[in-house]
Design goal:
Shape: globular
Number of strands: 10
Distance between the termini: 27 Å
Radius of gyration: 17 Å
Structural class: alpha/beta
């Protein structure tokens, strides 16, 4: 139940300017009714069960496609899978390139343009989630993981209810923050923060910093030597039990 409905593979896909301008603006017809507070909320998950036997390396944002490609190449060479939370604003610029980069990787929803969802009106939250899903499925020709990671980790009951209404059962956070989003983050610090976690861990990284790309090979080797698979969220979240999130923002910058 993690995956969205797939679409046929798109070849030579592009966005006419006038079509894109229409998409980026919130459309009234896209809005779900606000709904009462009694409606169910997506479950907030920070880690999966140890029984998964795997850890998930997750990569947010995507502002540097070249570095993202390097990260994905490293994962493929080591028979590992990462989960990429790429904002649609980056993917729509070079859809064919992203299709190559993300081959064999999992992708999930981090919104179209990286806004604080807790500070946006209902219609904008819906548009940010739906438009990003549309961009990914058209560009990649395959489903996204049906999980949401709000930008800046900013989530709450309202965002959770909207996500649930849109078919997202999980808001996925993390239990390990590598700190690679910090200014002048160093490769050694990223590696030190990422290693040693138990199976089921969800590790927060970013698809942009050069230090992250340099750290990934060492992180993957560390877990594989321990007999722990580096796998996608669909593997790590099997059997996960979330809890309803309270309004908060996680202390990280991306």
């Amino acid at each position: 139940g993690v995956f969205a409905q797939g679409q046929a593979e798109a070849a030579g896909f592009g966005w006419p300017l006038e079509e894109w301008q229409e998409l980026v603006e919130p459309q009234p017809q896209d809005a779900l009714p606000p709904g009462p507070e009694t409606l169910p909320s997506a479950k907030v998950v920070r880690k999966g069960p140890r029984s998964s036997g795997a850890v998930a390396l997750t990569f947010d944002d995507g502002y540097d496609a070249k570095i993202c490609g390097s990260i994905a190449d490293t994962l493929r060479r080591n028979d590992a899978v990462g989960t990429f939370f790429i904002n649609g604003q980056w993917m729509k610029q070079e859809p064919s390139r992203w299709r190559r980069i993300l081959e064999g990787m999992e992708v999930a929803n981090h919104t179209r343009s990286h806004r604080y969802l807790t500070e946006e009106p209902h219609t904008v939250v819906v548009n940010q989630i739906r438009t990003n899903e549309w961009i990914h499925e058209q560009a990649l020709g395959r489903p996204m993981l049906k999980v949401l990671r709000p930008p800046y980790g900013a989530h709450g009951e309202r965002v959770g209810r909207i996500a649930k209404q849109l078919g997202y059962d999980h808001v996925v956070m993390w239990n390990v923050d590598t700190g690679d989003w910090k200014p002048k983050a160093k490769t050694k610090r990223i590696v030190r923060a990422a290693i040693g976690a138990p199976p089921g861990s969800i590790i927060l990284m970013h698809c942009g910093p050069g230090a992250t790309a340099r750290a990934v090979p060492r992180i993957v080797r560390h877990y594989q030597r321990r007999g722990i698979e580096v796998a996608g969220l669909s593997t790590v979240l099997k059997g996960a039990k979330g809890e309803l999130g309270k309004p908060k923002s996680e202390p990280y910058g991306g």
